[in-house]
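Why predict the complex rather than its parts? Because the way molecules touch one another can change local conformation, and only a joint prediction can capture that. The input here totals 474 residues.
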Amino acid sequence: MTSIDPSGLASTESEIIERAEYRDAVIDLLAVLAVSEITAFERLAADSVLAPSFADKATMGELATTEFRHFISLRNRLIELGADPEIAMEPFRNTLEEFHAKTKPVDWLEGLMKAYVGDGIALDFYREISSYVDERTRELVVEVCDDLSQSAYIVERIRAGIEQDPKVAGRLALWGRRLVGEALSQAQRVAAERDALSTLIIGGVDRPGADLAEIGRMLARLTDNHSRRMADLGLAA
Amino acid sequence: MTSIDPSGLASTESEIIERAEYRDAVIDLLAVLAVSEITAFERLAADSVLAPSFADKATMGELATTEFRHFISLRNRLIELGADPEIAMEPFRNTLEEFHAKTKPVDWLEGLMKAYVGDGIALDFYREISSYVDERTRELVVEVCDDLSQSAYIVERIRAGIEQDPKVAGRLALWGRRLVGEALSQAQRVAAERDALSTLIIGGVDRPGADLAEIGRMLARLTDNHSRRMADLGLAA
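Output of the joint prediction:
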């Protein structure tokens, strides 16, 4: 087992517990992100079947293969930290598979929206959490969250789809709300089941975390970004 | 439109027709291969959902992302040859989507078998055709057909699955036969619909192609390779 603390000096028992707790939290964070990336890869590639043109398939494929590369980086970092990637990732598999099972796009526009809006809010959330971890972990999280799905091309394609058939706007606005609702309910499930991960945000025995006001601001930022993304598409959040 | 003939000299009318026919055939070959790769990418990534472990998902992901890279190389070559990739690939979309719709694996072992046996015979077939085209095209085809799915890892995983539950051997042997049957029936459909592509093999007005004996030998090689792959898995072809 590799210690994450670079000092390697343990003096009091509470520091040792604190450090073990912190290590568990970082492993949980990397693992949940890794499972997000591999399931996103599987679903984006599968949704490429819905793409009307081969140019669109190429775009979905670029997104999907990037998610796969991210998965590999995160898995390698878990191994570096001395974690068994299978054991670390397993607790998150059901949650993320359930999210995808409950949000199967019925057509190409819903698939694109899922990449833009669903990945958007998930990645914002992981970035927020990364402010509570060490620099090296944060760098990896930020790199992995620098997502292609937020590209102008995706926005343009969705806007063009709505322009071509304005009736779909209402359905897509609902779809956006459903994506966020499902994402939040899965996030709550993870937080309830994974103590280490929630301790990372709210703080531990000797380590101050975010207070309620800060958590409130974080949720406000997530909601604002989501509304901005919906507005970019010309949709009500 | 870029001419494939490097000499660029056209003397008789039949030579011009012959050259146009040849160009169409090469574009058809690259296009059908590109569509094979992108649909294989979509299905392999989707089948990764069936993988029991994250290590297996990583393997399926490697296979899938390699297929995607091949798709991009082939699409770029179509553009280089002055073809519109959408127009070139469209005629093959239904055929390949139908192949995948008719061969949906019900479990992880069927998914692996499809990658090994299905991709195996398809790639053998493309390699055979490539002996009738110019060197540059042949090199690209051979590169794209140098497939990871033929790796020892896949064979090992399938053999281990059969060892663990010998009952599945009969079902997998049938599955292998179905994969080849569906692949052949789709190949026949393509050959019947795409004159240029079949002319490439059987020859044109002034260009000798394969005679019946050679076509017989080609089919024998395809069947032999398929039987060898099934034997590698410990299954009857």
